[in-house]
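Figure caption, in words: inputs first, then the predicted bound structure.
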Amino acid sequence: RTGSGGSPAVEDPLRSLAEEIGSCRRCPLAEGRTKAVPGEGPARAEILLVGEGPGREEDRTGRPFVGRAGSVLDRCLEEAGIERSRVFITNVVKCRPPENRRPKRKEVEACRIYLDAQIELLQPRTVILMGNAAARAVLDVEGIGELRGRVIRGRFLVTFHPAAVLRNGNLREAFIADLRRGRGMAEGGAP
Ligand code: URA
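Bound structure (uracil present):
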C-alpha cells in the first residue's frame, strides 16, 4: 500500500490522538476511569477491530482486550491466522463504563470523534465490528443475529463480541470464520 504505511504521517497523529484520549473529559465516563484505553496497533494495520468498551483489566492497564474476553480474542485471532501485533484494536468508548454496563448513547456520541479519527487515519481495508455496540455506533444498525457474517459498505464486517463467544462456545467457529474472512478481505480478496 502506498502512502501511509507506518510512516510518521500516520504514526504521529495516532499518538497525539491517544494522548488526547488520555486526558479526555467529553463525557462522565472520564470520572470513573483509571486509564483511558485509546487502542493499540501499528499505523500500517490493514485490519481494525472494534469492541464495546474497556473492562476492568483494560481500565487498569490502559490496553484493549487484555482480560478474559481478550484471551478468547487472542486464541481466535491465532486460529484465524491473524497476528495480533499486526492489527489495530480499539473500542467504541475509550473509558470503562461503571460495572461494565453498556455505554450510553451520549457516551458513544461524545467518544465517536475518536473512533472516526482512527478509521480516517488508519484507512483500514477491513473494519471488524465485534458485537452490537460496535455495529450500532459505526453503522447505525442493530441485531447481531442477522448481521453477523455480513459485509457492509465493502469493508465493514459484523461479528460477535469475544465476550459472547466466552459465554457461548457454540459461537466460536463462526467468530473464527468471520475473522478469517476479514483477513481475506484485508489481503485483497473478495468479501
Ligand atoms: N471488551 C471490550 O469490548 N473491549 C475491551 O477492550 C475488553 C473487553
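Residues 51-55, 58, 64-65, 67, 69-70, 91, 163 surround uracil (CB under 6 Å).
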